[in-house]
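Annex B. Sample input.
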Amino acid sequence: MQQLTDDDLLISGSNHHEEKERTVPPDMSSVRQARPDFAYFMSDELRAELLRRNQMLTACANLDVAAAMPERVGDYYNLMPLDSSQANVPHKSRTFRYQTISYKATHIRTNAICYLKRIMGCKLPTVRLYEVVETWKKIIHANIAQLREVFLTKDFNDDQPSIVFVYDFIPCCETLQKRHFSSNNNLLKGWSNPYNISGEDRPFSAGKGTNQTGLLAEALIWEYVVQISSLIRTLHAPSLSCRCL
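Annex B, continued. Sample output.
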């Protein structure tokens, strides 16, 4: 009997594979096929979003802005203004009728990053206000920023005290006005600063005459409708009101 060499086996094996396609054996049909890379690794968009959020969490005010900020407000320090277009000019809210400004700050004991909404020149809080605040603090909803506490302070060195609302800080979040009705958005070209020269909020009707080059997708509109209706229903249950979104 003639003995076959390794070369003969290799040649005959290669010819066999050229004539017949490779198939998955029947007994291995349950073996999962190889997944694409995105099934195992994070997408570039998600990685960029996480980096932006981390950058926002660790961001600090520059030296000029930090010099104008108080070292400590209540139990919070390391204040940084968040109103990019109105960082040094508080605007007057049409809803609250007071000048307001937003900050990112750190809790002095827990080191938690919080969102501070300062209402300037507000009158002294009443007993009814504290009752409403306690009700708000009990509201837990995925579409509502959690209210942590409310306090009155003169740490901003103003003639009149300011009332400060403390919420959970959600990095890189945007309002509907900024997302869809700002000057950088293509949906409403010509919409400029959301505040008037006096610092008051501009009404939505101020942008009705702009050139609408595109409309929101129906699926996105329904997402907004479902989320907004859900949070309003949650607030109405304990007799709370929602005057601004």
